[in-house]
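Team,

Forwarding the record for the chain on the shared tracking sheet. I've put the sequence and predicted structure together so nobody has to dig through attachments.
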Amino acid sequence: MKLIKHCCPSSSNQPIDIRSKNIAFVGNPSVGKSAFFSRITGIGVIVSNYPGTTVEITQGSVQIGNRVVNVVDLPGIYSLGAATEDEKVSKRYLLKEKPDVIVNVVDATRLERNLFLTLQVLELGIPTVVALNQVDAAREMGIEIDSKKLSELLGVPVIPTIATKGIGLDEVMKKAVDPSLSSVGRIHVHYDNHIRYAVEDLGAKFPDVDEVTILRALEGDVEFIELMCEKKVAEYLFNEASTIAKKIEQVHGIPVSDTIARDLYGEAGQIARIVASQHEVESKLKCRIDSILTSEYVGIFGLVMALLLTFFVVFRGGGFLEEGIVYLFETYLIEPVRLMMADSNPVIRNVVIYSLIGIEAGFAIAIPYIGIFYIILSLFEDSGYLSRASYIVDHLTHYLGLHGRSVIPLVLGFGCSVPAIMATRSLNTMRERRIASLLISLIPCSARTVIILGLVGTFVGFWAAVSIYVLETVIILSVGWMLGRALPGEHSGLIMEISPLRKPDAVATLKKTWIRISEFIYVAFPLLIVGSAILGALEVTGVLDTFDDFVSPVSVGLLGLPAFAATALVFGILRKEMALEILAVLAGTANFLLIMTPLQMYVFAVITTIYMPCVATIAILKHELGSRDTVAISTFTIVLAFTVGAIINYVAKYWGGII
């Protein structure tokens, strides 16, 4: 997606220079990089204090003077060591695409930590401009940074900026396209003598290989070497570097990568001490709030209360809005169309009606639940609370093979699975995203809650409904525990900086919410409508009746359900609460005690709560994980649901009178 915008003044009489530069934005998470990118391009990327928000590469264009410049927003990373998926994406782009200029966005409040990445970026030899961002927040913390001195030490332009207010951004971009910007005369990190001698030795043997590639070879970064060298040279270099690295490790007693990281941090710390000064400021209130929010007991209690309040607001507010939206659709669109097409071809009529029902379902999910949830989520993100929540639950989520960052997607699942799965982008590895997405698919969302409360809670009893939630919790914890130990892939810990507490911006919050809702609409709506149309055609052609007969040995014999319940379960794929609505239509009454036993209602609710996600969730799963994982998750939930339902049916009948 590209959008041309005049970032700097230009005369209309000047011809456009078609020779474009490629500029890559690089920086740690939460430094304001995405805010910077969004400001200069006009593209509405998500702006967030939560580490890892920018997971995918985002591209845009901007006109500076008479030149069109291509800009790329790379994922927020802490280093080029490629320990996470984000770092791998950024490293591959920088090495393979080779941008003309790098804009390294640095957080002035965390200068030493950010300079670690800056020094690695400078070693690549690509012309670089450093945007010293959040200087206003640094001043509030009593930190003053001499940007001119920092520029002299790094050997590259350093421009103070405040991305959220647009201050300094034009100057950064002007410097980035300045023809005089060069990669010569940069700082050279003072590495340990053993590292320096090893680089010199390998440099003599491989004269065509640059110094940074040799350093990565000593660290054992195979991917880096393969991207920079021919295959035979890469293999030879890796073997030679490994031999030397073992000797260095014997002397130091630590891996070479740790030695190099230590030297980089030492250099970054030395630079930070020279250019930054600290003076006392009145920030005791924020420190006290921070200590409360991150405390072991009070912090967890506060998080539980915040999540419960969020769930209450979303459930109540979303339910209220959903009821109104459904009423408007049914009264002014679906019913008039149904009457108008009463004499039409049954197949065409059903396809149209069910397509409209699919649109209704999409709006009823997107506007009430996703909208409210994302407004609250944006407030948590922009205030800095999410990073604190991740910190305090990190230990607990490790039992599920995840880390603290996964708490928000999991909680989102209680409202709606769609935004929850979209939120898994903040996780570092595909392994974690797969685990989180499967667990989210099992969490009772608001639509499943309608079935639990509307069927079991109303006709069987309150505690029977509560027991379903308890059963779901046990299943989710068990599945998460097993996946955490059995699923192959990379394990990552929670490495993050807790960003300063800030007052959220109302405009930014609403803008971010709209971006997220619109993404759901563009991705999920087409599949939602197509899926609805297919179900409508299957219903009128009698395929579903044939299906009922075909699965009756399972639905009736194994699960003990009425024959028509199988069709209701199929419609639950379109929209979960529709399973209950169709059940009432097929039964001819909403008083389920007349046509079902308490055990049948309980089993039906349990199966509906566990089995295959709705069409909207399936669409998002396919978009986020791909077809293979989507099929695997859907198949697993179906098998699990039928297995649990059969066990409940058998145990209840065997012991008699349990339900």
